[in-house]
Amino acid sequence: MKGWIKKAGILTGLIGLNSALEYTPRTLRNSPLLEPSLSTIGTGAQFEQRWFENQIDHFNDSDSRTFNQRYWINDRHYKGDDNPPIFLLEAGETDALVRMDALDRGIVNILSQATGGIAVVLEHRFYGDSLPFSNFTTDNLKYLSYNQTLQDSISFIENFSSVSPYSKTQQSKWITYGGSYAGARAAHLRKLFPDIVYGGIGSSAVTHAEDDYWRYFDMIRLHQDIACVSSINEAVRLVDLILDSPFSYPKDALKTMFGLQGLRDEDFADLITYPLAFIQSLNWDDAISSHKFQSFCQTLTEDSIKKRLLGYTVGSAPYALLRYGQWIQKNLSNKCPADLTPVECFGLPEAVSTEPSTMRAWGYQVCTQWGYFQGSPPATESDAYRHRVVSNRLNLPHTSSYCERDYGIVERPHIDDINKLGDFDTRFPRLAFIDGSADPWREATPHSSRARMRKDTLSQPSVLIKGGTHHWDENGWEDYTSEPKLIRRVHEEAIAFVTSWLEE
Ligand SMILES: *[C@@H]1O[C@H](CO)[C@@H](O)[C@H](O)[C@H]1NC(C)=O
Ligand SMILES: *[C@@H]1O[C@H](CO)[C@@H](O)[C@H](O)[C@H]1NC(C)=O
Ligand SMILES: *[C@@H]1O[C@H](CO)[C@@H](O)[C@H](O)[C@H]1NC(C)=O
Ligand SMILES: *[C@@H]1O[C@H](CO)[C@@H](O)[C@H](O)[C@H]1NC(C)=O
Ligand SMILES: CC(=O)N[C@H]1CO[C@H](CO)[C@@H](O)[C@@H]1O
């Protein structure tokens, strides 16, 4: 694998990682290529990078080791009054530079502007440059338990007025905000530490941890373009049929058609889920939205003479498969440098690196507490299974096998650590949940089809963005009043409920 790592630059940006929660084929997970690159996420240069010294172990008084946690402040709306409201954007499972746009133009800037407050982004331990250890061995990663990480934010809030340049903030009201995993954090911080955290907004907040999260892909089936979804389904069923063949010839031909010859069946099935991951990065703002899923759909469904001919003779599935293969070849396989084989580029590496990386950290959180292994629906979910958009090779034993391989973890994740904090029914005064109706993560949020209905009140707002995917309210425009109505209304509602909270 050495050659591949040396050429790490080549695939940078291939996956438009917003955060580690974005689905990543297992075969690409260990790749250093997935670290977000500064050219795609910006440098945050407009804000000064600051450091807070935090405890590595919050629960052991005789352990005095500390690490430096990174944060940034947007104070352009702060007029110098005593105790301004402070909006803490939890960066979550990513390099926090990814959140600089949200600090500059997004939700916390909008809320600070409306209230004369201060906006802060705090990087999460083990991500970006907030590293307690320079080696992510499983032993070191044990300090990445959820309770330790929540305590980081609490220590930060409690010490902010003494360590930051803003000393007149001892009595400030803190409101947490986060999207995705960070959304769950924002909600849990409010609920678990109500005297320290005045209010919270969980956007696409995954308050429900789940071992087998096959619903991720099923949300794609349920909410994306029907013609495209049914083409994917036809192609995938044909893939599974071919992979079931006892002979190697058809399987080899299939993989070659995708430019992925030599890959193991499971690695192949996993890798071709690649275009589906981009659903999560669809955004109302065209400038930052990913267009790869649409490009994939267009390729699969395009009308052509060939499509009609194949349709009349052997059915539409072979056409869908052919086009699927072409798209993967053009957009993924061909990115492999010419002097390397597909296996060298896309097969699982033999040795696992313990170097610090987003995937290494998030994978540990997944394997120990959160679950969210994404794959095919189980056959018992007959409707979802029949219409699956990913191969049935991607079952739970397969999708979670990296836990043992990469971390030596054999137990199932302790999802109860998370779910006992409220699960779908997490609620608290001054705690808001904002979700997208088509978000692949919706089934892990309080707006899941399995959750109790919620009333939308000023104290406990419950907002579902129609057609939205992942935390669409996090980003915004400098002048939010010029945003498209769908999003402007969410931002207006957030200003209204936050203003009312602050008046209480
Ligand atoms: C607490 O910290 C001390 C000093 O580092 C260490 O010797 C001890 O094993 C720690 N206890 C636990 C339970 O981790
Ligand atoms: C990280 O720890 C592992 C296991 O102890 C060790 O084999 C490896 O050499 C260490 N890597 C670095 C860069 O220190
Ligand atoms: C923190 O979480 C870890 C992992 O679940 C657990 O072992 C530990 O007992 C917890 N500590 C506290 C103080 O709750
Ligand atoms: C932060 O505040 C807490 C309680 O106010 C205090 O015990 C702790 O020592 C402080 N930590 C730092 C790093 O300043
Ligand atoms: C996003 C991307 O790179 N899309 C390309 C994938 O391949 C098709 C052709 O099949 C191109 O047209 C796209 O530009």
Strand order of the largest sheet: 1-2-4-3-5-6-9-10
Number of domains: 2
- Helical amount among residues, as a percent range? 25-40%
Oligomer: single chain
Which structural category fits the helices and strands? Answer: alpha/beta
Low-confidence stretches at least 5 residues in length (pLDDT < 50)? 1-20, 31-39
Mean pLDDT metric:
90
- Beta-strand percentage range: 5-15%
CATH first level of the largest domain: which class? Alpha Beta
Supply Rg: 23 Å
The name of the CATH topology of the largest domain is Rossmann fold
CATH superfamily of the largest domain: Alpha/Beta hydrolase fold, catalytic domain
Number of strands: 10
Describe, in plain words, how this protein is organized in 3D:
The chain has 504 residues and is an alpha/beta fold. Residues 1-20 and 31-39 have low confidence and may be disordered. Helix content is 39%, strand content 10%. Helix 5 (107-115) packs across helix 22, helix 10 crosses helix 15 (317-331) and helix 13 packs antiparallel against helix 15. It is globular and about 75 Å long. The strands form 2 sheets. An 8-stranded mixed β-sheet has the order 1-2-4-3-5-6-9-10, sandwiched between helices. The chain has a two-stranded parallel ribbon with strand order 7-8. Bound molecules: 2-acetamido-2-deoxy-beta-D-glucopyranose (5 copies). Residues 53, 155, 158-159 line the site of one 2-acetamido-2-deoxy-beta-D-glucopyranose.
